[in-house]
Amino acid sequence: MIPSQLPGRPHFDMVGGELCVEGLPLATLARQFGTPLFVYSKAAMLESLAAYRRGFAGRNASICYAMKANSSLGVLQVFARAGCGFDIVSGGELERALAAGAAPGDIIFSGVGKTRAEMARALQVGIGCFNVESEAELEVLSEVATAAGKSAQVSIRVNPNVDPKTHPYISTGLKGNKFGVAHERALHAYQRAAALPGLKVVGIDCHIGSQITTQAPYLDAMDRILDLVESVEAAGIPLPHIDFGGGLGIDYNGDEPPKADALWSALFAKIDSRGFGDRKFMIEPGRSLVGNAGVCVTEVLYLKPGEQKNFCIVDAAMNDLPRPAMYQAFHAIVPLRQGNGPSSVYDVVGPVCESGDWIGHGRALAVDQGDLLAVMSAGAYCMSMASNYNTRGRAAEVLVDAGKAHLIRERESPADQMRSERLLP
Ligand SMILES: *Cc1c(COP(=O)(O)O)cnc(C)c1O
């Protein structure tokens, strides 16, 4: 049987009319572990990583997985063992990265609201770099580092004011976004950083947004950053590394983002032509490493035909798959078994008591009650954003490695959910 690969989803194939991951039928995993169930392919993750590594071949570069995309320990282990660093945005993520075996020196800490306690802990374990997002944060980090008798390596996140042409909630590099230091203020911020005790300037950083599907905003941002490197270095402050953030999009619905290797060959053409080819380059990809390496398997609980709409009610909901409710995002929805019955058009919705609880609008599906569906492209920003709304336990997660399934997270029980609560006397 020749497998037919789903477009843009390597390692998720239709084999004999059944959707498989690395050759394992997803229906078998659903029977074994229940639904809703997140299933990830390790091979798919490593392939996405390999595309970046091809782009960086022969360069001094480091790939720091932006773990907020999917921070499950088993997923982090895959990247730690593959030699990645990590981009973290909280003290909680720091502890997760360490628990998964990350080398502290390969961790970089981003985010606009780092607390003193988070800074102190990160200094204690010896992280590689703080991506500082404001002048006020520079002052606080200097105080915390000095009090601890440490030196904090810092890079300033600069807001290059380029439009990534993505959803407004995931644009981060425009004037008016809360992120980074304005381009015009950046030189001043670097001079401040260089003068403060307890800080050592090691680089520059930017991150312009997420689910970016064209090359142009990246090339514009790179020009803006290289301009700044020139002016900061002309002021006598060397910037050994350039961290270019993450944000590369994936194929959710026929999207055609540039491939990581093609994007980086275009960027290096610019970098080399401007004479910066020998710098250390860092990147912080999240979604593009894990998004299409995962699916969420869900069971059809009820079909509910209506006058205006038909509803397909499934056992996964907005608490498991928050992206549609949050960003009107699209996930492809594929029956695990290719049916040959007639299809109807459904709104695919979950059991949560909110009209915003939908997974897909207007989908043509040939399904019956009890059938299993795969919500595709669910490896990024799904489980890491999952909640317990409606006191729904978070789903189980399985990571498939060379055709073998490993349970990396048990389904959350009501007792798990109530563990940290206390009854009144
Ligand atoms: C979220 C985030 C990333 C990763 O973004 P993706 O779109 O998932 O690649 C990288 N860097 C920072 C600072 C982030 O906040």
TrEMBL record:
InterPro entries: Ala_racemase/Decarboxylase_C (IPR009006), DAP_deCOOHase_LysA (IPR002986), De-COase2_C (IPR022643), De-COase2_N (IPR022644), Orn/DAP/Arg_de-COase (IPR000183), PLP-binding_barrel (IPR029066)
Modification N6-(pyridoxal phosphate)lysine occurs at: K68
Residue ranges the record marks as coiled coil: none
Record's signal peptide: none
Cofactor or coenzyme needed: pyridoxal 5'-phosphate
Pathway where it operates: Amino-acid biosynthesis; L-lysine biosynthesis via DAP pathway; L-lysine from DL-2,6-diaminopimelate: step 1/1
Functional summary from the UniProt entry: Specifically catalyzes the decarboxylation of meso-diaminopimelate (meso-DAP) to L-lysine.
Similarity field: Belongs to the Orn/Lys/Arg decarboxylase class-II family. LysA subfamily.
Name listed for the protein in its UniProt record: Diaminopimelate decarboxylase
UniProt gene name: lysA
